[in-house]
Write a structure and sequence with these properties.
Its cofactor is a divalent metal cation. This is 4-hydroxythreonine-4-phosphate dehydrogenase PdxA. The structure is a single chain. The protein has 368 residues and is an alpha/beta fold. 37% of the residues lie in helices and 17% in strands. It has twelve helices and 13 strands. An eleven-stranded mixed sheet has the order 3-4-2-1-5-13-12-6-7-9-8, with helices on both faces. The radius of gyration is 21 Å and the shape is globular. The chain starts with 7 loop residues before the first strand and ends in a 7-residue tail after the last helix.
């Protein structure tokens, strides 16, 4: 029986035809995970069974899958993965590639069945967290195309969590090692992203960034605020957002006692180098790619000679929610799903972050 004083983590399996099941099995083969938390997978046992077979073929491991229908049935024993079985994906829907010498890609891609299942896993894990049955939630990748094919019109996990937790003020934080980034906007066009750089939203993100770092145990977070335009607009020559929107937000945050060392927006082409150098604990980015690109340049490492990913690291945390949510920082990998070559490092990172947040918030105490 798992340690009753450790936080319970609800881990969604992600799209059943993506890399999530395989990555989940590989992550939960790390014995250290069970020393720090009690992991519970929300998904389909049929998919997890198949992922366990792939793991056995690739690594010789003997991990087992235990089907449960209630959190109280979970045992949290290393070597056996507890799966809250939603029963949405029949075994017959999973392509049979067992007769190959090595596993190969499923070749299914985005479909309504996968999208509906992935959506329901997320809905269930939020329900369990809001009910206090689990301490934190961790999500594998879903396909925006697939969930929309299934009739759920959301642009990603963050928006689903906001809707089902009735949260209006929230933002995405990406993190890899000491580099952390929050975003003023995420899944919108670049044209719309520029229009969303408004004082109130920038200030909201600065506040959430400060609170998020404090939730990780950083007593006085140092916040860097990126500009929107090249050279922060050069005093209005290349744009006025820094003058009209970003600086007023910084001034308001400083008046509240939030620590922004430079007291002004930092040019986006240098703010991340400074963050890596230890100037800031977190950076407020103005739009999706401004924050995502530096994180993925640092966390995603491709071996050109071996033609494979050495590391797919990094974690996505939604700040501002009433429950804890961390996630992998990559997609479903439909083109390789089922091949046995998915990298679990990002999920391990996400689990680590969820444990930190649960422990610091004291959410594990409810289960002791």
């Amino acid at each position: 029986m798992g340690n009753a004083y450790l936080p319970i983590l609800g881990i969604t399996m992600g799209d059943p035809f993506g890399n999530g099941p395989e990555i989940t099995v590989k992550a939960l083969m790390h014995a250290g995970v069970y020393e720090c938390c009690r992991p519970l997978v929300i998904g389909d046992a049929s998919s997890m069974d198949y992922a366990a077979k792939i793991a056995r073929k690739m690594t010789g491991s003997s991990v087992k899958i235990r089907r449960i229908k209630d959190v109280r049935e979970a045992r949290f024993d290393y070597g056996t993965i507890d799966v809250y079985d939603m029963g949405l994906v029949p075994a017959s829907a999973i392509p049979d590639i067992s007769d190959r010498d090595e596993p190969g890609p499923f070749g299914v891609g985005a479909c309504a069945l996968g999208g509906e299942a992935a959506f329901q896993y997320v809905e269930k894990v939020i329900e369990l967290a809001l009910a206090g049955e689990i301490s934190a939630t961790v999500t594998n990748a879903i396909s925006k195309e697939a969930i929309n094919l299934a009739g759920h019109h959301y642009s990603g996990h963050t928006e689903i969590y906001a809707k089902y937790t009735h949260t209006n003020e929230y933002t995405m934080m990406l993190a890899h090692e000491g580099l952390r980034v929050v975003h003023v906007s995420t899944h919108v066009s670049l044209r719309e992203a520029c229009d969303r750089v408004k004082k109130d939203r920038v200030l909201e993100c600065i506040r959430i960034a400060d609170a998020g770092c404090r939730a990780l145990g950083i007593k006085t977070p140092r916040i860097g605020v990126a500009g929107l335009n090249p050279h922060c607009g050069e005093n209005g020559m290349f744009g006025t957002e820094e003058i009209e929107q970003i600086q007023p937000a910084i001034d308001a945050a400083l008046a509240e006692g939030i620590h922004i060392p430079e007291k002004r927006p930092t040019p986006p082409d240098t703010v991340f180098s400074k963050a890596l150098g230890g100037w800031y604990d977190i950076v407020v980015a103005m739009y999706h790619d401004q924050g995502h690109i530096p994180l993925k340049v640092k966390g995603f490492v491709y071996n050109r000679e071996a033609q494979r990913w050495e590391a797919v690291a990094g974690v996505n945390v939604t700040l501002g929610l009433p429950i804890i949510r961390s996630s992998v920082d990559h997609g479903t990998g439909f083109g390789h799903a089922g091949s046995g070559r998915a990298n679990e490092l990002s999920l391990v990172n996400a689990i680590d972050y969820a444990i930190q947040l649960a422990n610091f918030s004291g959410k594990q105490d409810h289960f002791s």
